[in-house]
Amino acid sequence: MQDQRSKPKNPSELDLLRQRIIDLETENAEIPELGNKLLKFAEVEVEKKRLRQIKLIG
C-alpha cells in the first residue's frame, strides 16, 4: 500500500506546474531588461525637460 508522499502526481498536473515554472523564469529574466528600459526612458525625459528649459530661457 502506498502513502500520499510516494504516490506520483497526475502527469498533466506536473506538466502544468513545469510550464508555470518556465513561464515565471522567463518573466524573471525580463525584469532587468525592463528596468534598464525604464531607466533609459527616465534619462531621456530628464534631458527633454532640460532642453525645454534652455529653449524657454534662450
From TrEMBL:
<protein>
    <submittedName>
        <fullName>8564_t:CDS:1</fullName>
    </submittedName>
</protein>
